[in-house]
Amino acid sequence: MTAFRATTEPERKGTLAADVFLGRQPIVGKHRELFAYELLFRSGQPNFAAVVDDVAATATVIDTMFSALGLQQALGDRRGFINVNADVLMSDIVEILPPSRIVLEILEHVDLTPAILARCKQLRARGFQLALDDVVDLKPEHRVFLHHVDYVKFEIAGQERAALAKLVRDVRAHGARPLAEKVEAVAQYEDCKAIGFDLFQGYFFARPTVLTARRMQPSKMVLIRILRLLAQDPDNSTLEVAVKEAPDLAMRLLRMASSAAFSPVHKVTSLRQAIFLLGHQAIGRLVQIMLFAEHGGTKLGSDPLVQTAAVRGRLMENLAVALGRAHLREEAFTVGILSLADSLFGQSMAELAELLNLADDLRAALVARSGALGQLLNLVEASESRDAKSLAAMADLWGDQDRMDFNRLQVEAIAWASRL
Fold first, then answer.
1. 9 band by pLDDT with thresholds 50, 70 and 90
2. How far apart are CA 395 and CA 48, in angstroms?
3. Bridge partner residues of 25 (DSSP)
């Protein structure tokens, strides 16, 4: 998920665009493939009461997200889950959303009245999908709604396995799909999958299953060799020889160089020409991102780990510039991209830092979250969290900077990652 924090000072109550949190958290399937995003709309600071009404806050953030990014960049080809309370659900706000792309997620505090049920039937008839949020037990009012929603999201924390398994069976019997929320460990994910969940939300997919060495695919080792070669500023002929050992990379370079952004007039006719047009910096970034893609040319945008890493890299670069540390922008990008490498390779970050021969400041940021780069990484990681403690920590790290600046930087990072 990506998020921004906005001001909560009483004198800014009327400034809706500056009084909301905007977030994007992946929802994945049972093979950890990207299924959808939840777009998180929250008003005010977590430690304070809401400073604007939910209808206005949701309307403002919908406008911010879809106007600034556009639906394709915000969601790609996936659906977006949007939190709605009773007022939003009953209002005309939802009418502007594309039904085929949006799941309306009914918050847990909404009274499931006959009027709400009638509205749900109406919205489903128009093509919207619906979800019940944060369900702990299936109360009678929930059961009435099960035939009229598509997803039921369960908070798994503190739930007994047998009781949770029964809830999953009951939901499936009514034709809805159960979704496990706040899955933060691989063991939780495996257990939920075993009892019948096939949709999951939480950052378990960004955590290594094991922290012991795993044999890397040959293609990954070639990319690592190219990355290390680029650090030595090789001539283009030497780089061309190395790139030819990675056909996937060569094809991506040719495709990228052929785009209008790099070659608006002439057609690219060779790999050497592509390398010349793109330059070492762009090639290095593509190599770093490809390290997160599965072997076989998987589309980069289809993997939530790749998307999260790409957004982190670009956002950290943006933050370095915004915070007066422009001299660290390249290092910041690299730290952001590599911050999930332990999850990809199943090795400790210390081992990977050694394998990649990282400089001391990059190593300190990735292994210990220390130094200027570590502080930037802490800020980005805090922005991805849904809990109040992390968001409060994020506010401290961002300091007195304009909160909307952070929003703009994240919007740009999401847009950049969506183009990969």
1. very low
2. 13
3. 38
According to DSSP, residue 55 is labeled: H
Closest CA to 301 of 148, 418, 216: 418
Work out whether strand 129-135 and strand 102-106 pair parallel, antiparallel, or are unpaired: parallel
Model pLDDT, residue 143? 84
Q: Which long-range contacts link 282-286 to residues 24+ away (Cβ below 8 Å)?
A: 282/256, 283/230, 283/239, 283/243, 283/253, 284/227, 284/230, 285/313, 285/333, 285/337, 286/249, 286/252, 286/253, 286/256
Token pair for 120: 């749900």
At 326-342, the pLDDT tens digits run: 999 988 988 998 898 88
Residue 194 has which token pair?
A: 């075993």
Q: Are 290 and 252 in contact (CB under 8 A)?
A: yes
Task: Detail the DSSP E strand segments found in 128-210.
Answer: 129-135, 151-155, 177-181, 199-201
- Please report where in the chains the tokens 């009404």 appear, as a residue: 53
Q: What are phi and psi of 230, to 5 degrees?
A: -60, -30
Relative orientation angle of helices 388-398 and 371-383, to the nearest 10 degrees: 140
Identify any residues that bridge with 152 across adjacent strands, giving them in sequence order: 132, 178
Q: What is the pLDDT of residues 77-100, one digit of tens each?
A: 889 998 888 988 998 778 888 999
Task: Tell me whether strands 20-29 and 199-201 are parallel, antiparallel or unpaired.
Answer: antiparallel
146-188 pLDDT per residue, tens: 989 999 999 898 889 999 999 999 999 999 999 999 898 888 9
> What is the residue whose two structure tokens read 């950290």?
316
Contact 34/78 with Cβ under 8 angstroms?
yes
Q: What is the CATH number of domain 2-206?
A: 3.20.20.450
Domain boundaries, the chain: 2-206, 218-290, 300-418
- Going by C-alpha positions, the residue among 48, 130, 17, 118 that lies closest to residue 83 is 130
Q: How far apart are the first and last CA of the chain?
A: 18
Pairwise CA distance, residues 192 & 195, whole Å: 5
CA 197 to chain centre: 21
